[in-house]
Structures are given as C-alpha cells and as structure tokens.
C-alpha cells in the first residue's frame, strides 16, 4: 500500500523495491551487455571447424585423386611445349620468352 501513498516519504531503498516489483529491471540492467556475442562467435567457429573437417574427409575418401597432368613434371613439359609452339606470341606466355637466349625476358 505504500506505493499508493506519497513517494516523497519513502526511503530510497523502498522506492527501489517498489520499482523492482513493478518493472523487474532497471534501465541499466535492460541495456547491459549480455555476452551473447561470445556464444555467436563460438557457434560460428564450431561450424567453420566442422566444415573444414568435412572438407578434409571428402578430400581423402570421396574425391578421386588428381590427374597425372597436375604433377610438376607434366606442367613443366606442357609449358615447354607451349613455348616451343609459340602459343600466343603477341601478348601471352610466349611473348615473355627470349628465344635467342632460352630464358625469360626481364
């Protein structure tokens, strides 16, 4: 019944109790940081890690091995054939090769 009376006669502690009984939270408590961002970062990192492990598993057990043309020796042989054949001589790969010195132009 104190709340229906004059609030100027109430002590600060009584005013806080009445306020809390009506509204449950103060403005400071309503707008205080909750730490929810930590949970969101944790869940995001969990799914990133799970995706990474799924990729690794699929790389080893699902996908076929890379073709032999991906090996270093095959790529070097293909580059040599492209230079000897003069592929894209004007502004491509062969334009950067010095045919007289057999080295790359600087």
Structural summary, described in words:
There is one protein chain. With 106 residues, this protein is mostly helical. The chain has three domains: 32 residues, no CATH class; 27 residues; 37 residues, no CATH class. 53% of the residues lie in helices and 4% in strands. It has a two-stranded antiparallel ribbon with strand order 1-2. Strand 1 and strand 2 form a beta hairpin.
Please supply descriptive tags for the structure shown above.
53% helix, mainly alpha, 4% strand, 106 residues, 2 strands, single chain, two-stranded antiparallel ribbon
Give a summary of the structure in a few sentences:
By secondary structure, the chain is mostly helical. The chain is 53% helix and 4% strand. The chain folds into three domains: 1-32, no CATH class; 37-63; 68-104, no CATH class.
Helix content: 40-55%
Give the helix tally: 4
Largest sheet: 2 strands, antiparallel
Mean pLDDT level: 90
Oligomer: single chain
Strand content: under 5%
Judging from the principal axes of the Cα atoms, what is the shape? rod-shaped
Give the strand order of the largest sheet, numbering strands 1, 2, ... along the chain: 1-2
Order of helices and strands: HHHHEE
Intertermini distance: 93 Å
- Number of E-state strands: 2
Q: Would you tell me the structural class of the helices and strands?
A: mainly alpha
Count of the separate structural domains: 3
Fold blueprint:
Blueprint: H1 12-23, H2 27-30, H3 36-61, H4 72-85, E1 97-98, E2 103-104
Antiparallel strand pairs: 1-2
